[in-house]
Structures are given as structure tokens and as C-alpha cells.
Amino acid sequence: MTEAAAPAGQAEQSPSEESELKLNRREFLNIAWLASLGFLTLSLGGITILFAMPRFREGEFGGMFTAGTVGQAPAVNTTPENFAKLKFWLSNTPEGLMALYKVCPHLGCLYSWNDQEFKFICPCHGSQYEHNGDYILGPAPRSLDHFVIRIEDENGTVLAQTPTEGGPVALPDNPNAVIRIDTGSRILGETHG
Fold this sequence. Notes:
Layout: H1 15-18, H2 25-52, E1 64-69, E2 81-83, E3 88-93, E4 96-101, E5 112-114, E6 119-121, E7 128-129, E8 135-137, E9 146-152, E10 158-161, E11 178-187
Antiparallel strand pairs: 1-11, 2-3, 3-4, 4-9, 5-6, 6-7, 7-8, 9-10, 9-11
């Protein structure tokens, strides 16, 4: 019986050559190095993804915050209420309620309310804003940014909400309705000039 010829370019291996195809030390170390590098890359990638995913809890900046009830809201045209930890001012204007982001749109300074002049003033470069966040003067490129407000009744039904284009929210007649601020939904102020 004749054996089939090996394909061109390939030599037949004898049983003694097959036993010599074991990994040598250098090949083993290369495979171990690449496997550990792959494991490290996967681990760091997984940790990075978990770290980058936002996890905002109720009452933290970036999530929903209950600011009280309609009956507890600041009176119209009075000093806005400062929520320093959550970086917003709750301002009640004749048009309605606004949650103004506490960071100046010019260079990111924290502005404050001035009772004597009845306006917001940025201490860094002097930008000034009205009670409702509208730009008055200074180097700021736009009016103050604000957050979305939802006013809900005791059952969680939304009674009023910030319009998609922004602006104040008219307060309903229900003094027990809850004011919820979504600090993860910022609406940019109107540009001027």
C-alpha cells in the first residue's frame, strides 16, 4: 500500500518531530505576558465604565431634588432661596418659579444675590442678572442657565413643568404640591448682543 504524498511545500512530520513541538520557555513567557496584559486591560476597562456611569441619588447634584412644597416657596419678588449644596437659587418672579444654576456663564464663578440692588452679581468680572436670571450687563455671553422644575401633587401627577424652551413655571393653587428640581437637566440661558 502506498501512502498519499504530502501537499507541495509541506514536509511530512515524523512521530519524533511531533513530540518536539512543545512550548519553549520564551514562548510560554510571551503567552503569559500577553494574557496578563489582556486581563489587566479588561479589568481597567470595566472599572472605567463603572466609574463613568452616573449614579445620582435623590437630593444630590445631578439628580432630582425636592425643594419643598408650593406653600413653602419664596414669595414673589423676594430674596431667592439659596440651595448651596445643589448649586441653584430658587427664585419666584411674577411670571413663575425658576431654579437658576449658581454658576456664572462667563467663566464659571459662583455669583450671589445682592439685596441692596435686588439683582444677582458675579464677584469675578461684574456680570449682573435680574431676579429671573436675565442678563443686565457685564462680560457674560448669555443669561443665567436654569434647571427643569416639576410640580407634582401628592399622587405624583405633574401639575406644572418648565417649558422645553425654558422659562418660569406658574405655581398651581395647591399649596401641598411638591416642587422637584432636576439638576441633571440644565437649560442654557438666552444669548444676547
